[in-house]
Amino acid sequence: MSDNKKVILTGDRPTGRLHVGHYVGSLRRRVELQESGKWDEIFIMIADAQALTDNAKQPEKVRENIVEVALDYLACGLDPKKSTLFIQSQVPELTELSFYYMNLVTVPRLQRNPTVKAELQMRDFGNKGIPVGFFTYPISQAADITAFRATTVPVGEDQEPMLEQCREIVRTFNATYGETLVEPDIMLPDNAACLRLPGTDGKAKMSKSLGNCIYLAEEPEDIKKKIMSMFTDPGHLRVEDPGKTEGNPVFTYLEAFSKPEYFAEFCPDYKDIGEMKAHYERGGLGDVKVKKFLNSCLQAELEPIRKRRQEFQKDISYVYEVLKKGSEVAEKKAAETLSMVKQAMRIDYFNDSELMKAQALKYANPED
Length: 368
Fold this sequence. Notes:
Blueprint: E1 7-12, H1 20-36, E2 41-46, H2 48-51, H3 59-76, E3 84-87, H4 93-101, H5 107-112, H6 114-122, H7 132-135, H8 137-147, E4 152-154, H9 160-177, E5 185-187, H10 220-228, H11 249-257, H12 260-266, H13 273-282, H14 287-312, H15 316-344, H16 353-363
Parallel strand pairs: 1-2, 2-3, 4-5
Helix pairs in contact: 3-14, 4-8, 4-15, 8-9, 10-14, 11-14
């Protein structure tokens, strides 16, 4: 049941600082959406409860990274006056919704979820087995999305199977109990290079667990060192050799970060990425020059973020206050949805006066 509001819900797991993959994949877009003025409500969630599904024995890791993620959010330009920043575990209604949705999803369906399968391959649970919470992550995510009646979820392409499973849950619930939940749409990055930024080692995905990330808060020298050691075309041994740009992480990063003004300032030999790629492909352009340009682009993009973060770090109490107030707003919204869900499921017993009257009449003593 839609209230005709345009609502965004998205977020991140607090298992470490956020990196440039998060930035081009979602953070930069979130700020643009926030500033567009086209959305009635924007909810940005720090998904600590989901982070605990595979970090249950490392609660301090999750606890410490709450502030790290919040600082990255604020530094990137998310404004608490325009977006609601909140902590997942502080909205208990999400857990209750997850419990009800579990009855609408089968184990084989969860096992077929491509994102779940991919995540399981990345994590070695060994003989311990898969935690139930981790296995049911798609259900939890559906609860997060539907609790805020989100109409749009900006995510990377790896999350498409999760959104489809959420839509299935919405359809099943509405078909069973009546039109109650909002079916969300996915919003993917416009730039194809931002769909899934590769790791600096050439691996398919930038990942904190693989150690192939460039973090938003890293110092300039550390960023430069990582860029200059990045994987590139292994067949491009000499400057004069033709090189491949397809699947070359350095050029993928340039597709995501380069701007016309960066070419004009840092690499005026080329007017855009197309000219640079063409030169590299025919030979005569070395990796060092390309990497130096990439470093200039990234430094220009990240420097203002790093400076804003340093300012926010001076007042951590303010950061916690933002999260506290945001969590209160989020809980109020989720409570409204939970009430609608319980009413649709006919388990709002104490609010159903007709039920009480009917039961009273049923058991009334006819002789009285």
